[in-house]
Design brief:
3 domains, about 30% helix, alpha/beta, eight-stranded mixed β-sheet, 15 helices, Rossmann fold
């Protein structure tokens, strides 16, 4: 209270703050998922193209998934529609297919091919995120599922879903410009775009990240779902050529896809084959030259509609080993997912346990069962380093006796000494945004020594706590960071006249031990 404000006699109390302002650490692992959901409706309100924060998979289900139908009197309640219902076709051939998954029954080969219009990754990616330790996340639903094409993709063609629109995804991305909390951008269905549109989207994501300086983008590589064991490097080259050159330090990529165990036999039934045309499935399970009376009976039951889909499907499983084998192959394909969502969950777990400066690598992936390609150490060399572009790709590898591990922690700016490592980039975002938000309390404060010292003390105290936790490198706090603010050091008289208060913060960040070199040498035996 100023003395000049006292006008009448009496006793006045003035409370003084005992403690200075402090830096509150911002959240480091809040992904934003942009893609297609079963629906986006809650209590009559649409959440399409509305960034919505969730904290659990149950919340995602409540807003973005199909809900159980309302019961009709005493009639049995209808089952909840499948949240994700891909369509598959068994395409016959007299010769062995040159690529792709196939099965052989008798003298006929059957290629297992999806309807590309029915393939989406968002729903299972959210499940994968939470199974790997995910917490808070933003969902930007840009639409629901589109119409199926009613036919399989051509054998050997890339998997492109025409219902996935690059402009819709970019619009959903732009909505996140008004959200400062997300620290990761993920588009699970980006690899279902054409190569050109995928590159367009990735460049837009990197540009937005570099402009906002609050988030990174996690990318998947087209072709990582079914890589050729010899030509897989072509997919890597194509990816590198389409990411542009802006904001590379804000991007990271993982390869290949992972074979998960998310979807079980109960998630796929006969309605997922041949566009829900059981008669075509019957021609495979009970061919004319070798009919099966049990299959014929079950198909009659399906046509009559006297039993539920679950009952008829269980009957098919029990009656036909061929059907069991088909389900196994289809589930393997449907369970092959891009790893970006799993990585977001892993980063959340590591950030909460160890800190954002810990590399999200040398860890296993929950729900991972197989990999479409087992990369060797020599094969990973081409992914980890590229002398021309420097665009590092983090490998996911399988190790004997250990399992599937994330085996890389680099950004796309792999040739940069400053930003080649993902934990370095993410730690710097964390420090910058935490200090930025704390410094807002001093906007319009007097630009004098008292304010400068208060800001230095506030940021210095925060960085000291980070150093104690192991986030900064140095034997002492003085060697780990420095904070400068003052006339003659960071500001000139003109800066003060123009209203600028400049603060210079230098930090020594911790870098991962990516290469551990062990040196062995023989020595002469000593005399006894």
């Amino acid at each position: 209270m100023l003395a000049s404000n006292v006008k009448s006699p009496g006793v006045y109390i003035t409370e003084m703050n005992a403690f200075p302002n402090s830096v509150v650490p911002v959240a480091t692992a809040v992904p934003a998922f942009i893609g297609y959901t079963p629906q986006a409706l809650y209590e009559g309100k649409s959440y399409t193209n509305v960034p919505f924060k969730i904290s659990s998979f149950a919340e995602f289900q409540a807003i973005f998934c199909y809900q159980p139908p309302a019961s009709q009197g005493s009639a049995p309640q209808a089952p909840t529609p499948q949240q994700y219902s891909p369509q598959y076709y068994l395409v016959p051939s007299k010769t062995q297919p040159a690529s792709g998954d196939y099965m052989q029954f008798g003298s006929t080969y059957y290629s297992i091919l999806p309807d590309p219009n029915s393939v989406y990754y968002m729903y299972n990616s959210i499940r994968l995120f939470y199974d790997n330790g995910g917490a808070d996340a933003y969902i930007v639903s840009v639409g629901s599922y589109g119409e199926n094409s009613g036919k399989p993709m051509n054998l050997g063609d890339p998997l492109v879903n025409p219902n996935v629109d690059v402009n819709q995804l970019k619009y959903g991305l732009a909505l996140l410009k008004n959200e400062v909390e997300p620290t990761m951008y993920i588009c699970p269905e980006a690899t279902l775009l054409s190569v050109a549109n995928n590159g367009n989207l990735m460049q837009a994501m990197l540009l937005q990240c570099s402009t906002m300086q609050t988030a990174i983008s996690i990318f998947d590589v087209i072709g990582g779902n079914a890589p050729d064991p010899f030509l897989y490097i072509d997919d890597i080259t194509t990816f590198r050529e389409n990411t542009g050159s802006i904001g590379l330090e804000y991007g990271t990529a993982y390869y290949p896809f992972i074979g998960t165990s998310l979807m079980q036999t109960s998630d796929i039934d006969y309605t997922n084959f041949f566009g829900n045309n059981p008669s075509q499935l019957a021609s495979v399970l009970s061919p004319a030259d070798n009919p099966d009376s049990n299959i014929t009976s079950i198909m009659a039951s399906i046509s009559a509609g006297t039993l539920t889909v679950l009952q008829n499907n269980n009957a098919l499983i029990n009656a036909s080993q061929t059907y069991q084998q088909i389900l196994k192959h289809v589930l393997a394909d449907a369970n092959t997912l891009p790893p970006s969502a799993a990585m977001a969950g892993i980063m959340t777990t590591i950030d909460n346990q160890d800190g954002v400066w810990q590399a999200p690598a040398n860890v296993s992936i929950a729900d991972s069962a197989t990999l479409p390609i087992r990369l060797s150490e020599s094969q990973q060399e081409n992914l980890n380093m590229d002398a021309v572009s420097g665009k590092s790709i983090n490998a996911i590898r399988s190790f004997n006796g250990i399992g599937i591990l994330v085996w890389g922690a680099r950004t796309l700016d792999g040739n940069s000494q400053d930003w080649k490592y993902l934990p370095v980039r993410r730690t710097m975002i964390f420090l910058e945004q935490s200090c930025k938000l704390a410094a807002q309390a001093y906007v319009f404060q007097p630009n004098n020594k008292n304010t400068w010292e208060a800001v230095k003390a506030m940021i210095g105290s925060f960085l000291t706590s980070i150093w104690k936790e192991g986030g900064l490198f140095g034997p002492t706090a003085a060697t780990a960071f420095s904070v400068d603010c003052g006339l003659g050091t960071t500001m000139t008289n003109d800066d003060i006249l123009n209203g600028f208060m400049n603060v210079t913060v230098k930090v020594a960040l911790v870098r991962p031990a990516e290469f551990i070199m062990l040196t062995f040498q023989q020595q002469m035996p000593a005399s006894s």
